[in-house]
Specification:
Helices cover about 35% and strands about 20% of the residues. It has helices at about 5-30, 55-70, 110-120, 160-170, 215-220, 220-230, 250-260, 275-285, 300-305, 360-370, 370-390, 395-400; strands at about 45-50, 75-80, 105-110, 130-135, 155-160, 175-180, 205-210, 235-245, 265-270, 285-290, 310-315, 330, 335, 350-355. It is an alpha/beta fold. Strand 8, helix 7 (about 250-260) and strand 9 (about 265-270) form a beta-alpha-beta unit.
């Protein structure tokens, strides 16, 4: 069928308008070639991110903001959730508008596909004297080719793990720093008592996933299979599958629900949790398991370890920033080409990720589930390791502050 000339002309016009708008945006937005600077005492520090979104990127921005406060800075939290139509929880911190006067540093928790739009929405332009840091996350060792063009707006990139840092350094020419997320360990409590230590005779296992981050990458179905294999149906064990956005992927949702129907001890939750609800979820679990194919960091794993929960996870990718054979159970795997039915990761030529050993995972669950003493030993080591590995002052060091530059605890810097 031949397309009418009028339709072709309209499509060409629309394409030209899009290219024109893109060219204007790229002309007025900040450029990485603009001379930057390191933040000094009194300079404004803005953390922009999805503070009203219960995903990993939102929690990463929250962690950065809290760590800067803990280090004696007075950061400004600017929310991007509404800009990207992802508001699903209340903010845990006070939010402000983006300040454009003077100069300062913007730490932008938005990935490459959202960077240009975020900078436009924040009102940051080439003539503003701001250092722009892209706090980007990724889950594979090969980065999408179209991410490169977004680096021209950044002075540098922060990667949450050495795994991600290496992928970015292989792909980009801008400086890339490894700045792991801060995860707090409660100094006033040795651990939140697990259900087993509170007298619950049913083993409580937890796994967590977000559909927007690829349920196939999170590998929920394999985790559910490992659980049912490890504990025959009459045994006192339960698995909670905590999801967000599961309903966006109907085929995967149907498979998850079918698996849950076959084992009535599996509970599926599909909604966003507040920070307090997430804390209670960990409180009511004995251990957390992840059979992920790849992680850029694994915030939920670090938070579980900080809360005194034993963890089992695939022994590959960004979670090795803080997970070791001494503080967790790392599952064996083989690498295979990436194939993602959700389409989120399926167009990266040459990319590989992990295929976990299901039998080894079931045996690890069985062994750890039956040994409260070993779970407590792992929890004790993991809390100590999280405290030293995921430090609050890592952000200040990345900004160029020596630890001695920071004011004593309790004293605040003044904004311009």
């Amino acid at each position: 069928m031949q397309i009418p000339e009028s339709v072709v002309s309209a499509l060409q016009m629309k394409s030209s308008v899009r290219r024109g708008k893109s060219a204007v945006r790229r002309f007025i937005l900040p450029r990485s070639t603009t001379p930057g600077y390191f933040a000094g005492p009194g300079d404004q520090i803005v953390v922009a991110g999805m503070f009203r979104t219960a995903n990993g990127v939102g929690r990463a921005a929250l962690s950065c903001y809290r760590a800067l406060l803990k280090s004696g800075h007075t950061p400004i939290a600017v929310d991007l959730s509404g800009m990207f139509n992802q508001v699903d929880v209340a903010s845990e911190v006070p939010l402000e508008e983006m300040p454009l006067g003077g100069r300062g540093t913007l730490i932008l928790y938005a990935n490459a596909p959202e960077t240009e739009r975020a900078l436009m929405g924040l009102g940051l332009r080439r003539w503003h004297k701001w250092r722009v840091i892209g706090a980007w996350a990724w889950e594979l060792s090969i980065v999408p080719a179209d991410w490169v063009r977004q680096t021209c707006f950044l002075s540098e990139i922060w990667a949450p793990s050495r795994f991600v840092q290496q992928a970015f350094q292989d792909a980009f020419s801008v400086p890339v720093r490894n700045v792991p997320h801060f995860v707090a360990v409660d100094p006033h409590a040795k651990a939140w008592p697990s259900p087993a230590s509170r007298g619950d005779t049913t083993l409580r296992v937890l796994t967590i996933a977000d559909g927007r981050s690829s349920l196939h990458r999170k590998n929920l179905l394999t985790t559910m299979e490992m659980f049912s294999t490890a504990f025959p149906v009459k045994e006192a064990a339960r698995l909670t599958v905590k999801c967000r956005n599961l309903s966006l992927y109907r085929q995967y949702e149907a498979e998850v629900m079918d698996c849950a129907r076959r084992d009535p001890r599996i509970d599926v939750i599909d909604r966003s949790f507040s920070e307090e609800e997430q804390r209670q979820l960990l409180w009511n679990s004995d251990l957390l398991v992840s059979s992920h194919r790849s992680e850029g960091f694994g915030m939920h794993l670090a938070e579980a370890m900080a809360a005194g929960r034993a963890t089992i996870a695939t022994g590959w990718s960004g979670n090795l920033e803080f997970m070791t054979e001494n503080n967790s159970v790392l599952l064996p795997f083989v690498l295979e080409p990436v194939s993602d039915p959700t389409g989120i990761y399926d167009s990266i030529p040459g990319a590989r990720w992990a295929k976990v050993d299901v039998g080894a995972g079931a045996r690890a669950l069985r062994e750890l589930g039956g040994s409260p003493a070993r779970r407590e030993a792992l929890a004790s080591r993991s809390r100590a390791d999280i405290r030293t590995m995921l430090r609050s002052h890592a952000y200040s060091e990345a900004l160029g502050f020596a630890h001695s530059d920071l004011p004593p605890a309790g004293k605040k810097r003044h904004r311009l």
